[in-house]
Amino acid sequence: MPRFLTIVRLDENNVPEGGFSPEMGERMGALLKEITEAGVMLDTGGLTPTSQGRRVTFSGGKLSATDGPFTETKEVVGGYSIVQAKDLAEAEEWAGRFLKVHDDTWTVTCEIRQIADH
Amino acid sequence: MTTASAVEAVFRIEQARVIAAAARIVRDIGIAEEIAQDALVSALEKWPESGVPDKPGAWLTAVAKRRAVDLVRRKENYARKLAEVGRSLEHAAEPPPAEPSPGSGPEADIDDDLLRLIFTACHPVLPTRARIALTLRLLGGLTTEEIARAFLASEPAVAQRIARAKRSLAAADVPFEVPYGPDRAARLDSVLEVVYLVFNEGYSATKGDDWVRPALCEDALRLARVLAALLPGESEAHGLAALLEIQASRIPARTGPDGSPVLLADQDRTRWSPLLIRRGFAALDRAAVPGVPPGPYVLQAAIAACHARARRYEDTDWALIVTLYGQLAAVRPSPVVELNRAVAVAMAEGPAAGLALVDAIAAEPELKDYHLLPSVRGELLAGLGRRDAARKEFVRAAGLARNDRERDLLLARAERLAGEPE
Q: Which residue numbers delimit the RNA polymerase sigma factor 70 region 4 type domain (chain B) (predicted)?
């Protein structure tokens, strides 16, 4: 059963005021319970803003580092999950359910990528 | 993605709950499975036009419940008609269930239905193989073909096993319920055992030429996670999940590039999955219930955790493992546990102490054809420098091993000893 990394992207400059509404928090909690009871969720987490992050690059044999925020891309990674599902369609269904618990004021993208098995 | 594959994905996710909801009404898991299939057919007909509903699981469940209620009513009407024409029935029909309101109902109800389905599929009235097949089919969502492939059986044989199991449950009038009485512990044990056996078949295949079948381990692990989530108050359910998470963390290291088995002592521990180890430890923490002494799965998980904590084989806390095996032998004594304890004692106190324990259980009938008895004995004799005796034990172990990969490993071990001087 393949594992999938779902990368959650959003425009951090346009996150709705106050973040999660209480209702959205409740829906998110219920979904997390559901996905855990399905034995599917392996790991998940939300990330702090890119302003607290740092980027390290290796190029031309040299290391260089830059501080956040990373404003050159509109959408940045805001969270991730690792699920174990039978196929991409199943992982997509769970990602869709995750997206649908958000209030309509949010714009969020899930990129679902299969983790290569060694 | 096409609607058909979206519908199938939804159905795979929801299947067990849909079957469980229908089974509560019709009280027969065979019929409930057919009703669930019907609900899938309706979805395949309707969703391509109407789009996938917002709560697809609730939609499928509502359709299945409606059909289940219809079926029960039809049976009752039929029974009434029979009674009207002056026949008496041997069995009074069940009172009609309350009409389910589509898509509603507290979640606890759904969880409860799912637990009923699990406890029924693993009912002790069924032989172990039937319990395994039924559980993988109804709860693991595996097809008959997948189950047959996993257990190296023919598809018709597995299909027949499942059909027979459904009939046995109906014939034995097994109530569709979660046991809460004095037999709960034994019933839970029979559920956990099914998942444990499925995992083990994947982890150390008893026959055939694969040493490990990871897919089967993953199916078992998923079921263990489901059980732990549905039974948060059951220490042993968390213990089983912890044990399987930690065991599964080693799978990438258990086979060499050529598919040959790599034993614990020789595994490259950097290949153990840190995520699964972390999940195992978290499950083990949840298993600790104040005032409840650790049960057999919790103890086995604690032993697995000792190995997981050791960065190198040399760092293993064998003394603690000896203690844990002692506790395990007290709650669930068995010659196999004794044999494992002997290995731990040998590691903690030297091969002679281990050999004394092995020799004490060597005559156990349960171990008569168990290849690991001579294999362990061979290892301990080799440790004492008694190479010739050790070689004979490895040859004997190879003769008993049913897994081809394991047999090769044991023969190679014997061969190496033959080449070394006493």
A: 118-169
Q: Does A67 touch chain B (CB under 8 A)?
A: no
Chain-chain contact of B215 with A100 (C-beta, under 8 angstroms): no
Whether B84 shows a pLDDT value over 80: the answer reads no
How far, CA to CA in Å, does B90 sit from each of B79, B82, B83, B93, B167? 11, 12, 11, 9, 19
Nearest chain A alpha carbon to B215: A1
**Tokens found for residue B372:** 């690991």
For residue B214, being part of any structural domain is answered with no
CA distances, B357 to each of A33, A116, B56, B330, B337 (Å): 47, 45, 58, 16, 11
Asked whether residue B40 is assigned to any structural domain, the reply reads yes
CATH code of residue B75: 1.10.1740
Does B250 contact chain A (CB < 8 Å)?
A: no
Q: Where are the domains of chain A?
A: 3-115
CB B137 within 8 A of CB B144: yes
Which pLDDT tens digit goes with each residue over B153-190?
899 999 999 999 999 999 999 989 999 988 999 999 99
Residue B201 covered by a domain: no
Name the minimum distance, in Å, from the CA of B6 to any CA of chain A. 6
Low-confidence ranges of chain A (pLDDT < 70): 118
| Residues 82-101 (A) with a CB less than 8 A from some CB of B | 82, 84, 86-87, 89-90, 92-94, 100
Kindly determine whether residue A42 and residue B275, on different chains, have CB atoms separated by under 8 Å.
Answer: yes
Alpha carbon distance B279, B206 (integer Å): 27
Q: Which residue in A86, A88, A30, A31 sits closest to B13, CA to CA?
A: A86
Quick one: pLDDT band at residue B317, thresholds 50, 70, 90? very high
Decide: B405 and B259 in contact? Cβ < 8 Å: yes
Nearest CA in chain B to A44: B275
Q: What pTM does this model have?
A: 0.89
Domain A3-115 maps to which CATH number in 3.40.50.2300, 3.40.50.300, 3.30.70.1060, 3.50.50.60? 3.30.70.1060
Segments of chain A assigned E as strands: 3-10, 41-46, 54-59, 62-67, 76-84, 108-114
Is B136 an 8 Å CB contact of chain A? no
The domain total for chain B is 1
Residue A80 backbone dihedrals phi, psi, to 5 degrees: -155, 160
Contact B297, B240 (CB under 8 A): yes
Range(s) of the domain holding residue B70: 3-80
**What confidence tens digit (pLDDT) does each residue in B365-403 have?**
999 999 999 999 999 999 999 999 999 999 999 999 988
- Count of beta carbons in the 10 Å neighbourhood of residue B93: 15
Exposed/middle/buried for A71, CB within 10 Å: 0-12, 13-18, 19+? exposed
pLDDT for position A27: 95
